[in-house]
Amino acid sequence: MRSKTIILLVALCCFSCFAEAKKGKPVRCGPSNIVCIEAIETNKGIRLYATSRRKYPRSVRFEFTKLKNLEEARHTKEHFVVQRSSRVRIARLKVKDQSRSWDYDFKIRSTYGDFAVRHNRHARYDLPFPVTAPVKVSQSCYGRFSHNRPGSKHAVDFQLEQGTPVIAARSGVVIELKDNSDKGGPHPKYRPHANYILIMHDDGTYAGYFHLKKGGSKVKRGRYVNQGEVIGYSGNTGYSSGPHLHFVVRKASIKNLTESVKIKFETKDGIVSCPKPGHFVNRMYGG
Ligand SMILES: [Zn+2]
Predict the structure, then answer these.
(1) Strand 124-126 and strand 264-267: pairing?
(2) Cα 210 to middle of ligand 1, angstroms
(3) Which sequence spans correspond to the domains of the chain?
(4) Is the N or the C terminus of the chain less surrounded, counting Cβ atoms within 10 Å?
(5) What is the 184 CA–ligand 1 centroid distance (Å)?
(6) Residues 183-235 pLDDT 10s
(7) Rounded distance from Cα 139 to ligand 1 centre (Å)
(8) Is residue 172 within 8 Å of residue 192, measured between CB atoms?
(9) Which CATH superfamily is domain 124-281 in?
(10) How does pLDDT run across 2-52, given as a tens digit for each residue?
């Protein structure tokens, strides 16, 4: 009797494993090609799943833009979080009239981290360069030139010579980087050409170090870096009016998808959140 129960349990488990492993047909990925949608079609309708190609959490916004001869058989998940180890079921569509053709389309956008993340207000950030001389702030929070979007409102630009070492302002894991571009200029069309390193902190927020020089990354994705460690070299790539480092801390947000957060830099002159543009900042310690 007991062995029969075990066989039955194993059979059920295998069946559910098999059902879980049933792969959907790839439909389309989001603009960054990290989160992708798969579909499983049956005679009853379509089930849509989201998958991710990254280890760390990705927050996703999903919306149908077209439903032809289809109806939502259960509530579609419009905001959700997906990780590489999981597959999230986001929608179930039912064919209304089996004798007619059906079609659907959707919009998908995703960002780094989890929507539920909260920035640790007590976290202290180093100025992101090991320069002991005063460094000029060329643009600060709410700067009109380019710090006017939700993801950059609390960003600070430090005027640094190309090739100046850049250090981790706070410890964390390198989640993304790009360092193969040598294009830059004072026009938004250069925005996609910025080299950068993104480091996720233990509270789930992440810091962005932008406009690095070509080949200017000293770290690899997945590597843990300590506060103060050199991670790369500054440059002038992307949307930039001159050599500088754009530094920003961000989190995922349901309202804006990505939002920058106000942080506290530790400087020689005390704690500073948004140093005044045109003014100079000093590191607390040399090195
Ligand atoms: Zn900037």
Answers:
(1) parallel
(2) 8
(3) 23-112, 124-281
(4) N
(5) 13
(6) 999 999 999 999 999 999 999 999 999 999 999 999 999 999 999 999 999 99
(7) 6
(8) no
(9) Glucose Permease (Domain IIA) (2.70.70.10)
(10) 444 444 443 433 333 333 446 778 888 888 888 999 999 988 889 999 999
Q: Tell me the CA–centroid distance for residue 146 and ligand 1, in Å.
A: 6
Q: Ligand 1 centre and the CA of 116: distance in Å?
A: 26
- How far apart CA 245 and CA 29 sit, in angstroms, is 31
What does the block give as tokens for 133?
């001389």
The enclosing H or E element of 259 equals strand 257-260
Å from CA of 284 to ligand 1 middle: 22
Q: What is the Å distance from ligand 1's center to 192 Cα?
A: 14
What's the CA-to-centroid distance between 68 and ligand 1, angstroms? 44
b vs e for 112-142, b when ≥16 Cβ sit within 10 Å of the residue's Cβ? Answer: bbbbebebeeebebbbbbbbeeebebbbbbe
**Which residue, chain included where needed, has tokens 């999230």?**
88
Would you say residue 286 has pLDDT above 80? no
Q: What is the DSSP letter of 150?
A: T
CA of 239 to the centre of ligand 1 (A): 9
Q: How far is the CA of 42 from the centre of ligand 1 (A)?
A: 49
23-112 under CATH 2.60.40, yes or no = yes
